[in-house]
Amino acid sequence: MPGYDEISRCNRCGFCQSVCPTYLHSRDETQVARGRIYLTRLLLEGKYDFTLDAEVSGKVDDCLLCGACTVNCPSSVKTDEIMVSARRDFAANRGLTLFQKLVYRGLLSHSERLERASLLMRIYERTGARNVLYGKILGRALDRLAYYDSFLPRGMSRPARAQLEPVMAPSGSPRLRVGYFLGCASNVFWSQTALTAISYLIHRGVEVHLPPTGCCGEPHRTCGDEAEVRRLAGLNSTLIFRDGFDLIATDCSTCAQALAHYDEFVGADSREAERIRPLLGKVVDLNTLVVEHLGLDADNLRPISHSAATYHDSCHAVRGLGVSEAPRRILGAIPGLELREMDGADSCCGGAGSYGFTHPSMSGRIAAAKAENIAKTGASLVATSCPACALQLGAGLRRAGQAQAVAHPVELLARSAAISMFRQTPEMAQGQDPEMEP
Amino acid sequence: MTSPSAYGPIGQSGLKALSDIVGPGNCLSQPLELELYSYDSSPFIHHPSAVVIPGDVPQMCQVVALCRRHGWPLTCRGAGTSLSGGAVARRGGVMLSTTRLNRVVEIDLVEETVLVECGLVNLDLQNALAPHGYMFPPDPASQKAATLGGNIAENAGGIKGVKYGITKHHVLGLELILDDGSLVRTGALLQGHEHNGPDLTGIFLASEGTLAVVARALLKITPLPRSFRTVSAVFDDLSRSGQAVSSIIAAGIIPTAMEIMDRRLIAALEDYLHLGFPTDAEAMLLVELDGLGPELDAQMDRIRDLCRKAGAVSLGQAATEAEREKLWLARRSGNGAMGRIKQGVIVQDVTVPIERLPGMLALVQEVARRHDVIIVQMAHAGDGNLHPHLLYAPGDEAEYGRCLDASGEIFAAALKAGGAITGEHGVGLEKVAYMGDQFTEAELGFMAAVKLALDPTGILNPDKVLPQKYQPLAGQECG
Ligand code: SF4
Ligand code: SF4
């Protein structure tokens, strides 16, 4: 449990109501940082026993961990961190939920299983099973299934890792050697993005290394699965924190934030933590890598097929890493593309890892509001720097019947630079996946 | 029930009736849910028996009528930011959360009015008005969260109070739910603007939910000022900053705002926002003027002069709009930032006549020393409205006791100086015991008569504002 001192810093001023997404979409005190802190306080005071009260842990699980309260709190109460440590205690005392066991430990912990599962998703997608399910068999009865289906990206291609090599050198001598941390969501759900981003880096003279890393461990951390966090971080740490890399980059801001704190992930007192601490500063998000280390190379950019884009700040980028300028500079550099800010650009999209699956009602409301803010800008494109946000934004837009495309800023930059892909596989050329042919 | 109670229990059938009105998802009664509606921003904790979050005015009316019929206490709660215990359910019963009635109903730029629902957040109203070039002048420090219903119930002031007045100066009419659930309008909300009959709007301002429930309000809006000047003056003595304020007012200058912050507050805010505040200064005075550019500069020079004469050791000026906003964000964050020093806080808001301000600031410092407690001082100085924050460690009963003693002394001193025990935070539960010191027997009797006429069964926010013997159910056992 978090320390009592940390919790009692909250003097119930209520200012968090103005930024907490779950409050703004419920107007209910049981859904705001102040309430969450108050409950935790009652737990610490022994009024409730969280090993017995499922209701308490339910309230703690309702938090998005978006961090908006923390940065806006006059007393700097770290509600997000406090919720994580409460979850750690729940998990230690009661074990994980079935969902957490199946999805986090079952799938995310083992990249090959997730990749295999993605094959099923692609079969579902390509064979038209969706239409059969919704059109003919289930009709409109299964709204819930339709909700989950909305998350599945359309036209998924094969996992990125299968299409890449462990070391990819540019032509000529490399200007930078970058360890690329390919996160599980990017690998499976955003593979075109990862491929395009990596191709762009190579085009700009970067030698890209792709060590066989697995899940960064952040999903497990947020549900309090401490042991699995250590195990995964331990595996990844030796692969990605290598002296030979000038920088360590990823297209996923969730992974980037996790890596930036990997000394804590591997166990703050461990020898590995000591070893990697001096290397943590090498972790950058992809936007920062491009803007600060490569430059925008604006002379070689040309218009893309969109004239207006808006940008959604992922929580891990804007509050976790302090990244908000770099992606906007990238979008601003693309000729003919106007950046139109949406209302509440830095407010959580409600994706929050698997929150969309565990809390469909709240997550759906937040996503709908995002979709509306996106529509108001009139942009035909939403850029964001995290695959989890991209999934959630895509699902929200699809449910709202909106057609905006979702992309990573660097993906758009690559299109604008008209670079050739690292390896033009036949499936890329044809825009489809050979594995899927009958 | 073994002990006699003045109020009826709610029970399962009562919960059913409430949830039939607002819908099951909007009626909360689980123990944990009730915990989360047991507090506001004050130290008082009392649990309601049920919480309802209605979605429209007709639902609110039905809830109020049901409470009256069954004799259930009814406490209204907006954002739950009362500093005096105004929004806690002292006698249990029904907690009516107004947060989902948060619409701007109509902005009328010709009449310069806005019709709002009671649960609209003050800052959301400002944001809706700004694109039209207007503002709603009352801007309590809690405006990010506090609702207009709450602002009206407490007659909130704010930083701009010196020049623009407080909430009561900007409310033209109210739509009220009386204790039997009927909906009535007052003031300019009545038809035929000329002959509205007696305007009863005023009695509901600062009535803290004890007379009726505010459903909607017609508010006067004010054009946004064209330009601003913001000066900060640093003093090595707290009461000197008070002298500067008195002399500015005496010189006939009416700034938009004049705010005093003491050493500890400056340090806590610096810790939060890193603005480069002088953390070794004893006091800082922020003065803001608004109006038209040229005349502002002349007035600003006068103010600098007067500050220097009062002993300011250095003077600064916000150069950009961003700098100016930072200064005010700092001031508004004062209450919350106290958590950095000690977590328990009693916030007072006594007022004194402006010429007594320097003496009062010094007296509070002296009271703190004598009672061995930390009192952080900030003040809407232009109104003579002090906000001493008395800090204690939660759980330290002895320290809390010393704070209460110190509090009592400050109340007494303010009244002796010809001031009042509350400028804007309300009486709530916190200051009921001091009402007899501020008002005469006849005045309290008059308030009691109004209360009895409007709420004969005493269901509306019981135990608040009026001392026990003036409450409608005086003498009856509490539940
Ligand atoms: S803003 Fe911070 S101090 Fe204020 S209620 Fe929220 S968590 Fe507590
Ligand atoms: S982390 Fe986000 S969802 Fe959780 S309490 Fe804070 S603002 Fe609300």
User: Beta fraction of the residues of chain A?
Assistant: 5-15%
Bound molecules: iron/sulfur cluster
CATH superfamily of the largest domain in chain B: FAD-linked oxidase, cap domain/gating helix
Using the coordinates shown, work out and report the CATH topology of the largest domain in chain B: Vanillyl-alcohol Oxidase, Chain A, domain 3
Class of the largest domain in chain B, according to the CATH hierarchy? Answer: Alpha Beta
Greatest interface (CB-CB under 8 A), with counts per chain: A-B, 28 and 38 residues
List keywords for this structure.
heterodimer, A: 438 residues, alpha/beta, Fumarate Reductase Iron-sulfur Protein, Chain B, domain 2, Glutathione S-transferase Yfyf (Class Pi), Chain A, domain 2, five-stranded mixed beta sheet, four-stranded parallel beta sheet, 25 helices, 7% strand, B: 479 residues, alpha+beta, Uridine Diphospho-n-acetylenolpyruvylglucosamine Reductase, domain 2, Uridine Diphospho-n-acetylenolpyruvylglucosamine Reductase, domain 3, Vanillyl-alcohol Oxidase, Chain A, domain 3, 3 domains, seven-stranded antiparallel beta sheet, binds iron/sulfur cluster
Description:
The complex is a heterodimer of chains A (438) and B (479). In chain A, 51% of the residues lie in helices and 7% in strands. Chain A is α/β, with parallel strands linked by helices and 438 residues long. With 479 residues, chain B is α+β, with helices and mostly antiparallel strands. In chain B, the strands form 4 sheets. A 7-stranded antiparallel beta sheet of chain B has the order 15-12-14-13-17-18-16, with helices on both faces. Chain B has a 5-stranded antiparallel beta sheet with strand order 5-6-10-8-9. In chain B, helix 12 (357-371) packs antiparallel against helix 13. The model of chain B has no long low-confidence stretch (mean pLDDT 91). The A-B interface holds A 8-15, 17-18, 27-30, 35, 38-39, 42, 48, 53, 55-56, 59, 73-77 and B 28, 30, 32-33, 35-37, 39-41, 53, 79-81, 97, 99-100, 102, 119, 121, 123, 142, 144-146, 272, 333-340, 343-345, 394. The complex binds iron/sulfur cluster (SF4) (2 copies). The site of one iron/sulfur cluster (SF4) has 15 residues of chain A, from helix 3.
